[in-house]
Give the backbone structure.
Amino acid sequence: MDEDFPKFRKKKNANETRKEIDNLPDLILVHILSYLPTKDAVRTSILSKKWQYLWTSTPKLHFAEGERNERMVFMNFVERALALRDSSKITDFSLSCDVQCDTSRINAWIISVVKHKVQVLHMYLRKFQEPLALPPCLFTCRSLEVLKLKMFHHLKLPSSISFSSLKILSLWKVIFSDNRSTQQLFSGCPILEKLSIIDCIWKNVKAVCISSPKLQELFISDRYLFEEKYGENDDKDDLNADADDQKDFDGCKVVIFGTSLESFSFNGELINDYCLYNSSSIVKASLEVFEREELDNHQDAHRVFKLLRGLASVENLKLSSGIVEVLNYAEELFAHLPAFHKLTSLSLEGVETLFTCEPLLNMLQNSRLEFLDFEMDWLPSYDGDYDWVLDPVPSCFVTHLKTIQIHPFSGGEYEMHAVKILLECALVLERIVIVCDESYFESHGGLKKHKEIYEQILLFPRGSMSCEVDFLVGFSARLPISSLAADT
């Protein structure tokens, strides 16, 4: 009898706890369910009568198709979940699935969530076997605040577009259909704050203007041809096999009025012609450019020039080595490049970007650069028969530059030579942060090699005698520019 007593007490306590949970108000229980995966939230319906329909009020619904042999189960599950839905709002809805020949079913789901005043909508649609035109009601949804749409398919738009509450729009791999509808889409978001256009196909569009008055962040990626080249486009299907054919396409002219824009990023090949106007509000920018075919290099140099001219007022700038390579194809532009008077933070891909790019040195002449960051993604071989120099030495090296960071560092001749020059030329430098490549040092002498290189750097002549050398190991030790700024 005594042995069974503890078990009885444990069971009683569990029942009491269950009653306490059941006695919580429905609003709290629904809030708890919103943190569960949708499948698990639905499973709670078997707990008791009280729980049977609670899940139908959960504000978040997330559906992701799994194995192909379970497709019918998945489709029926989504259909049932929406059919049993009560009248409460759906604040967050996501759908990731193959479309195949089920466009009508998928559109019915979208219509349902729009009726439930959806606020955040994420859709990743793929493997089309028939054309899809998303329902018109989606494009006039007053409650929608966030829309993220990923599909390698033509974006067929209705005649009326009005996203009166939309603040965040992300378009992935969509194929813009024509000038008029594409322009209507970007004009129909009056309070848009953040826009991402990722690997979309513009070949049906000659010109478009992005001018949302409240737009603060703009990210554009044109990597789809690069991905195609290396077989990375997994979303292609027979229906859209030729959608990204760029023959006889000279690019779309995309005019961006950035009256409120604070952040701009571009990543990819310069297939299109992007022009920034009224963009003096931009504080932070990143340009990562990939070289294209040799015939396109001169045109791409002019497109880089336009982007840099529109970013002349930035304070924080990141440039890839591709920018340097492309600019060098149009030397006639060097004298006309902007002076970055407000620039305080610059991140470059590889130290050679600084030493081999005359226009970059000229752009830095009148800047107030305080933080210089080098990302050593790849290293060319160093020829000891010549020495790179900073010519001309940017005036900011003499007056403003306080912190330099180099990562990941392996201590090769090329890198050591660059560090030596930087230490000599930076006359007011307070700190140089060198983050070592941990895997490299582990296979090349470990701590002994690490110490040897560190001691060698300490012997380099310095233009600033108060400069501290921080020699760190591991990528996680790297400090972001914001941290460096806070320290100084």
